[in-house]
Design goal:
Layout: E1 2-6, H1 8-16, E2 22-28, E3 31-36, E4 40-44, E5 53-57, H2 61-68, E6 72-79, E7 82-89, E8 92-100, H3 112-140, E9 149-154, H4 156-165, H5 170-174, E10 176-181, H6 188-192, H7 195-198, E11 201-206
Parallel strand pairs: 6-9, 9-10
Antiparallel strand pairs: 1-11, 2-3, 2-5, 3-4, 4-11, 6-7, 7-8
Helix pairs in contact: 1-2, 3-4
Length: 207
C-alpha cells in the first residue's frame, strides 16, 4: 500500500470515470473506501468528509463534491529565516505578508566563541519569532471570524514558538488542519502556489 497527496483536480479526473462501475464504496470516518475491479483506494479530502453511507457500486459523487468545495483558510508558514502569512478564499490569495530575518547556522566548535555565537543566534531566532507573531496577529485577526481552517507549515519548533508568543494566536492551532505542510522556503511565490498543496487529497491505494 502507498499513500500520496494528489492535487484535487487530478483526483477528480482519476475517480469520476469509475462512478457507477462494479465494486463497493464505504463512506465513514471522514474518508471514502473504494473497492473496484482494478484497485482498492482510500481517499481523505483535505478538509474532511461528512457524508456517511455504503453503496454496492462505486459511487464517487459525494466524494468529488467534498473535494471541489472551497474554503476560507488562514495560512502561517515559518522557518528559521523567514515567514509567509496569508488568507485564501478558495484558491485566491486575499491577504498576505512575507518577511525574512537572518538566522545563523549552528556553530559546531566549542569554547567561548561558540557561546557568543549561540547567544547571538538565540537573539536572531527570538527576533524572528516576535516579528512573525506580530505580523500574524495583524494580518489574520481581521479574518478570524471567517476562517474555517488554518494551515500551518515549515519548521515545527519555529511554528510552535510563534504560536506560543501571543495568546491571541491560540485560535490558529485550534482550527489547524492537523497536518504540518512541508515548506522549504516561505516566500511570496511559495505562498501563491500553496493552494495546490492546501487542497491536495490523501490517496492510499493497493492493487
Amino acid at each position: 500500500m502507498s499513500t500520496r497527496w494528489i492535487g484535487r483536480e487530478n483526483v477528480r479526473k482519476r475517480l469520476e470515470r469509475l462512478d457507477g462501475t462494479q465494486g463497493r464504496t464505504v463512506y465513514a470516518d471522514g474518508r471514502a473506501t473504494i473497492e473496484s475491479e482494478s484497485e482498492n483506494i482510500v481517499v481523505r479530502p483535505a478538509f474532511g468528509l461528512a457524508h456517511e453511507a455504503e453503496y454496492d457500486r462505486v459511487r464517487v459523487s459525494p466524494l468529488l463534491e467534498a473535494i471541489a468545495e472551497d474554503h476560507v483558510v488562514a495560512v502561517l508558514l515559518v522557518r528559521l529565516g523567514g515567514y509567509a502569512i496569508g488568507v485564501f478564499e478558495g484558491e485566491r490569495l486575499v491577504a498576505s505578508k512575507v518577511g525574512s530575518r537572518f538566522v545563523k547556522n549552528r556553530h559546531k566548535k566549542g569554547g567561548s566563541s561558540a557561546n557568543r555565537f549561540r547567544r547571538r543566534r538565540e537573539e536572531q531566532v527570538n527576533d524572528l519569532v516576535r516579528e512573525a507573531a506580530e505580523v500574524a496577529a495583524r494580518i489574520l485577526e481581521p479574518w478570524r471570524d471567517r476562517s474555517e481552517f488554518v494551515a500551518l507549515g515549515g519548521d515545527r519548533s519555529a511554528m510552535d514558538a510563534v504560536l506560543a508568543e501571543r495568546a491571541d494566536l491560540a485560535w490558529l492551532r485550534e482550527r489547524s488542519l492537523g497536518r504540518l505542510f512541508t515548506v522549504v522556503e516561505p516566500r511570496q511565490r511559495v505562498l501563491e502556489a500553496f493552494p495546490y498543496d492546501l487542497y491536495s487529497v490523501s490517496v492510499t491505494s493497493s492493487s
